[in-house]
Amino acid sequence: MSEETENMQTPEEPKKRSDLGTIFNDLLVFLKEILDIRFDTDKKATIEDVKDNISMKGHTAWVLVFSILIASIGLNVSSPAVVIGAMLISPLMGPILGVGLSIGINDIDTLKRSFVNLGVMIGLSLVTSFLFFKIPLFQDLTPEIEARIAPDARDVFIAISGGLALILAMSRRSKQTNTIAGVAIATALMPPLCVAGYGLAVWNWSYFSGAMFLFTINAIFIALATFLIVKFLQFPMVKYINSAKRKRVAQVASFLALVIFSFSVFQFYKLYKIDQFGINAKHLIEAMKQSGVHIFDSNKGDIDYKTKSIKLIIYGDAMSQSEVESWNNRLSEFELTNVKLNIEQSQSTDLQNKVEQLTDLYARNQEIIVSRDEKIKTSEDKIKELQNELDKYYRVPFSKVRDEARIVYSGLKTLSYGHVMTTNFQSIDTISIFAASWYDSIPNTKQQEVKLKLWLKTRLELDSVILIEQK
């Protein structure tokens, strides 16, 4: 029986393997269709579009100037919406894409034109932002400006991802304008140039150099992404009649591509190391806090990658020399080898006392706020209760009742209204009382009073009404 079973199962095994192989092949074909970027590529139109947008003269130059001015205003008032609007209308991408494209297709003339216009673009941007921030009214350091004075590794990923998305969107037969606009915002080329102009205006070299470094990183990786896509899609190379010149141009282009790529990798590695150093330093600080060391929150300058030093200000109980040495010995645990840990601490308790005083003051203020809120709530409840009581007294619109009663009962001479409080010593009730007097010409006043009482009760939607004759 077992041999028969084996004989029956054996022919099915190749079939199962075949089915799995078919499914795997189908999956590969499906993924290839989804991720294939060669489809719908218009190489000729893409090259023309990039070349048309390189020039920085005439109306393009003025659009750049005005967009830089708008972005500078947005940075000055810390308005991300204004900065985003400026990035949408700026023509900054043109020369940068031209550099990547020209290297990819060995077009030395376009490369020269791209570099010239890139220099014009940077010059116009710096001059415009410099003149704006040179006005003393606009020289405040805002959070939006401070956020763009130094790049990190994430800016590299944003730039290269944005560059890839941009050239892919432009290379389609049907241009994806929403993608192009989104890349202009994400890569954020304009704000660093504005901040560089701010650094020049306030004579702060670190702001200028940091912002220009951020712009350079973004520009290089956008150009690099363009170069990679152009090579991958096999854009047609520029042909020269002179074979020697063609070879020389190809060598120059390849050399520039290698230099840009090597510089990009080096800068990315450098930014990665800086970011990693900051993260490791924060882990060290958190570990020290958890062990009971009281540390003031560190500023950016307290964690310095260039000097490989970490400065910490300790308050409260002073650390002994052995504790300081112990933490210095543990730096390797946080991958902070060859790092100098500078600990500043006060021997007196003045600082701790001030912190405790501030803490007590904050706690008292919180108690006052809570107490005030409770009093306000109690007052609001009392006002609501009194309002309800007033509504009971004044819920009868007497002026309207007077006018309507004069029309319905022409013989009515006077009409008075009031409230009477009654009690059965178990509850208190309010009764509406009306007093009416009639002209002498009215023969049957009793019958008129019954009708008037019923009308008042219905008109005012009251449970009970007392009507008395006014003498």
From TrEMBL:
It comes from the Bacteria. Keywords: Coiled coil, Membrane, Transmembrane, Transmembrane helix. It holds the Pfam family DUF389. InterPro entries: DUF389 (IPR005240). The chain crosses the membrane at residues 60-77, 83-103, 115-133, 153-170, 182-201, 207-229, 249-269. Residues 341-396 form a coiled coil. PANTHER family: AT15442P-RELATED. This is DUF389 domain-containing protein. It comes from Urechidicola vernalis.
